[in-house]
Amino acid sequence: MIYDLIIIGGGPAGVSAGVYAARKKLKTLVIVPEFGGQSIVSEGVENWIGTVKISGVDLAKNFKEHLLAYAGDSVTLNEGEWVKDIKKNGKEFTIITDKEEYQSKTVLITTGSTRRKLEIPGAKEFDNKGLTYCASCDGPLFAGQDVVVIGGGNAAFETVAQLLAYCKSVTLLNRTDKFKADEITINKLKTNPNFKIITNAIPKEIKGDKFVKSIVYENLATNTTHEIETPGIFVEIGLLPTTDFVKNILELNKIGQIPVDPRTQQTKVPGIWAAGDCTDGLYHQNNIASGDAVKALEDIYITLHTR
Questions:
Q1: So what's the pLDDT on residue 188?
Q2: Do residues 126 and 212 make contact, with C-beta atoms less than 8 angstroms apart?
Q3: Which portions of the chain are predicted below pLDDT 70?
Q4: Is the whole model's pTM more than 0.85, yes or no?
């Protein structure tokens, strides 16, 4: 059979699009490796609109329940399946997974991205035990405490800005003496008395018992090793978009994101849309991903009914 739409991904973008596709009675297949997106590892998501606080696991469960509640006979859910490639056949597309091949008139890619992981001793052991990759999700858990941020780009400084709203102090470790963040952003934060920058700092080890207690770093300028006591370490060293499977059909930007028209979420290939963290959108958050996906779905619906 030929679907009206195939949605790839089970985070806030994919599920939002799936719910809207069901309500519009589009014959839709949703291919979901797993539900939840990046937030699934969070102990408490506090910025999902309409919900004061929810764990990442419960949020993923709610995503699935919401989608299934509306699916009816319009939406088919294939969970635990991975897309390997997309091919264009005339006006239609073939979606190739690890299990099957499917045909569709349109495609919406919502596969998100993964945080670049810190690879030093202790990082894996204390992941989500004081070491976190999401300030929006986990920052409030460290209110009134001294925390550390690792990174030097805009995302790192945005994380610092969020944390300064409720943490006692924030120390930023940057590998070099230069920053990738905008100068305006850096200067706004430099004057905050609760913010400290340490440059030429190479993280070496995370220490703790059940939870993080400290981070060890080497100062390249002085060839000395230092240790900072902290219960919270926020890592912002870049994102890796989950887009390898589309590189044969879509042109990606230099960091692997999918360029889209921000008004419609259309890609440069007619019939393919993308939304959420896998795109080159300026900001990436759960609520933004959801809104972008709804925008894309509305445009997909119009496109299908004006062909």
A1: 87
A2: yes
A3: 41-43
A4: no
